[in-house]
Write a structure and sequence with these properties.
Number of domains: 1
Strand order of the largest sheet: 1-2
Number of helices: 2
Mean pLDDT: 88
């Protein structure tokens, strides 16, 4: 869930959150939610439609969270559990390699 994508494939469809900022550059709490994809997408029309339908449903979950507290709480608890599980499963990372010396971050 905390993955940052370094490479974006032509067939990827991304959910984009664009915050509205006040004159001080601070988030107003409002945002624009949309989908981003490439013109070079090679999915079939049928597959593209289904992927965009799923993306649209994901985008629709944002205003639904405002309207439905139960739905928002369910998503919050689910996301919190996923983050906690990722922390439990986090493995040590190699931070530096030089000759036969390896530094590891636990």
């Amino acid at each position: 869930m905390a993955t940052v994508f370094e490479d974006i494939d032509d067939n990827d469809i991304l959910v984009r959150l664009s915050p509205f900022l006040d004159p001080k550059g601070e988030w107003t709490g409002e945002l624009l939610v949309g989908l981003v994809t490439s013109q070079d997408n090679t999915l079939s029309d049928d597959d593209y439609f289904h992927m965009m339908q799923l993306g649209s449903m994901l985008c629709a979950s944002v205003p639904l969270m405002e309207e439905n507290v139960k739905f928002r709480d369910m998503l919050y608890k689910y996301a919190k559990n996923v983050l906690e599980e990722e922390k439990k499963q986090k493995k040590s990372e190699v931070t530096e390699r030089k000759d036969n010396v390896i530094k590891v971050n636990f």
